[in-house]
Specification:
The chain is an alpha/beta fold. The protein has helices at residues 2-27, 77-94, 113-124, 140-149, 170-178, 198-204, 207-224, 240-247, 257-267, 289-308, and strands spanning 42-44, 50-52, 62-70, 100-106, 129-133, 153-159, 189-193, 235-239, 272-276. It has one domain (31-308): Spore Coat Polysaccharide Biosynthesis Protein SpsA, Chain A, CATH 3.90.550. The protein contains ten helices and nine strands. 42% of the residues are buried. Keywords: Endoplasmic reticulum, Glycosyltransferase, Membrane, Signal-anchor, Transferase, Transmembrane, Transmembrane helix.
């Protein structure tokens, strides 16, 4: 019958496409990239002296590390850094025992991001502000990972350079972390979330962008992460142990890295809190709506397929080069 032949043809075509996607996902799977160029192993002090970055494998020596990935952020970053430093300095005055560091990771910028960040090193000293300049662009996930692997904090906050999230909302994600049951391994992640703002965002966005947003949310839910409404907010707080456990396994270095990070965390049964934070759209986003969403959609599908096929494996924390 013609109808049966049509159905059989469609099923065969879908099966063939699925097999090809599976093969492509497996064959194109890259390995965890923890290597760094010699220049990326050092930071500059206020006097311009080179010093070696520590390792995430070392014991913590600060209460908090703030990791800020920055790509061509010479214009937007100062506002965020001023706000962050004001908050952190105020906390230190109120609680003298509190120690912190800020690590700005210049992700191969073409502008003066490093020079701008180094002004803060000169102002506050390298014990408080360090700049890690990557030789070439890795992507946001790669930049966050390199900064995290170089941090000294008991807690590690990743925060975007555009200042879209109010920095004082760190108190909210800290509270979210404290409400979790950490267990003997001290594993926990507290994610800032914009999910409560979704209704307003939908009202302000075009139908096409809204469609892309919901499509992305569905792919995240279907393939990777369930129970977290906003995986992409760039304001996440990790215990040092959770950061080591997750970032050591991370493969995706571009926009979808948050999803893989949370997927890894859920595979390891790391407790995760999702906490509403204040968020404002800041002009100058590096995200190109259609192509970035398309790339993220592909990455989401490939993340799951690569773990299913064994191309990627969850592993114990590795030593970095």
């Amino acid at each position: 019958h013609p109808f049966q032949a049509l159905v059989t043809g469609i099923i065969t075509a879908i099966t063939n496409i699925g097999i090809h996607v599976l093969i492509i996902a497996h064959l194109t799977a890259g390995m965890v990239n923890l290597t760094r160029h010699d220049k990326e192993k050092y930071f500059l002090t206020a006097s311009g002296e080179k010093q070696l970055f520590p390792s995430l494998l070392d014991p913590s020596s600060r209460d908090l590390s703030v990791v800020i990935p920055a790509y061509n952020e010479e214009l937007r970053m100062p506002v965020m850094l001023d706000e962050a430093m004001e908050f952190l300095e105020k906390r230190q005055k109120q609680t003298p025992s509190f120690t912190y560091e800020v690590i700005v990771v210049d992700d191969g910028s073409k502008d003066k991001t490093t020079e701008v960040a180094l002004r803060y090193t000169k102002k506050y000293g390298a014990e408080k502000v360090r700049v890690l300049t990557l030789v070439k662009n890795r992507g946001k996930g790669g930049a966050v990972r390199m900064g995290t692997l170089s941090s000294r904090g008991k807690l590690i906050l990743m925060a975007d350079a555009d200042g879209a999230t109010r920095f004082s909302d760190i108190e909210k994600v800290e509270a979210g972390l404290k409400n979790l049951s950490l267990g003997p391994e001290n594993l926990a992640i507290s994610c800032g979330s914009r999910a409560h703002l979704e209704r307003v965002a939908v009202a302000q966005r075009s139908v096409f962008r809204t469609f892309l947003m919901y499509g992305f949310h569905f792919l995240v839910w279907f393939f990777c992460v369930r129970g977290i409404r906003d995986t992409q907010c760039g304001f996440k707080l990790f215990t040092r142990e959770a950061a080591l456990k997750t970032f050591s396994c991370l493969h995706v270095e571009r926009w979808a890295f948050d999803v893989e990070l949370l997927y890894i965390a859920q595979c390891f049964k790391v407790p995760i809190a999702e906490v509403a934070v204040n968020w404002t759209e800041i002009e100058g986003s590096k995200l190109v709506p259609f192509w970035s969403w398309l790339q993220m959609g592909r990455d989401l599908i490939f993340i799951r397929l690569r773990y299913i096929t064994g191309a990627w494996k969850l592993q114990s924390p590795l030593k970095t080069d």
